[in-house]
Amino acid sequence: MTSLSLRKVVAEALAEVGADLRYLKLPKGKARTTSWLGIEHGFGIRHYATGRNVYIVQTRMAGRLRTVTIGPASVITQHQATMVARRVIAYAQVGHDPAADRKRTRLAPRFDDFLDEYWKRWSPHWKESTRDTHETYRRLYLDKAFSGVFLDEMNEAHVTTWFAELNNETGPGAANRAMSILNNMLNKAESWGYRLENTNPCRAVRLNRKRKCERFLSLAEMERLGRVLAEDRESAEKVQPIAAAAVALLLLTGCRVGEVLGLQWQDVKGNRLKLRDSKTGPRTVWLGDEARAIIDGLPRLRNIPWLFWNVKFRRPIKGIDHYWHDMRNRAGLSQVRLHDLRHTFASHAAMSKETLPMIGRLLGHRNPQSTSRYAHLDDEHVLDAAEQIGAAIERMMV
Fold this sequence. Notes:
Elements: H1 3-16, E1 31-36, E2 43-48, E3 53-61, E4 64-72, H2 78-92, H3 98-105, H4 111-122, H5 128-142, H6 156-169, H7 172-191, H8 219-233, H9 240-253, H10 257-261, E5 268-269, E6 272-275, E7 283-286, H11 289-296, E8 309-310, E9 315-316, H12 321-330, H13 340-351, H14 356-363, H15 368-374, H16 379-397
Antiparallel strand pairs: 1-2, 2-3, 3-4, 5-6, 6-7, 8-9
């Protein structure tokens, strides 16, 4: 059925229900939301940012999910729109017996088949680290989920039950991450025509509350860590000094662990690091004299492009968690994560009166909200600010 013939069907149906065709001017722009009315499958009302509402009907025609605009809610009644929607659905189903119609609706794939299609079509857009993480979540939590369920049948009950079982099986953070993958999958299912618009059941599920990690090192803690790093950098063990240098560089630059461990000598450009890839894409990291001295102190091996090289196993260092756990325990920092060094860099930058835009640029943030998460102030600096403001006000009152 062509668009022209569909418009003709709608026009005839509107005329039959007594709608005045002269006032059927449709709003322009992108719709904000769609509410499904439940009277007929696929019949709903689309809401625009301008405040105008339009009746629509979505139905499968020749294997494709088609959206047909009926008319503005300000001109035609819900009863009139329902009659038109039924006419459109009837035309879409002409020539099909019930068995054939069931086969038609099953053109939407089963969840496991769509999972394969989604991975094949969308995983090339992910970074390698994201792909590795998603592969793990798929294997553990998605491959065996929703067995035998067709994609257009999935509803809130399916997703809620799965998420509840997931929380019994794993931690709240992992459950949230798996839910975000499923949410994106079902959004793509709508975009690719397998589900009605705005029917993603993940939207109705409340995620687990996120744990706020706002840990950063105080001056005393940094002094203790500095002594441990100095000891390890003088160690006779082959890899330990390299790991200590990596930790020091994390603290001095605010970089992520993967950004530092993935550095190659070609990335070092004077007092800058040219990161070929990061969480937010390629970016420049500016080096102070201390950070540059750390890099200059690393052994540069012939025909080895990486800064952090494991001479024992003849391969790049991919992780330093084992070394970090030993360092932090010796420094009395048992609960501190490597990522908290990034918090520390940003927090002390804020306490040194750097602006949030500058801190965001140093950290490579695109969103200012991300920067504000890292810019913590300890009680001493808050008290100092309060005293300065109080003293200024008192001087003005004298």
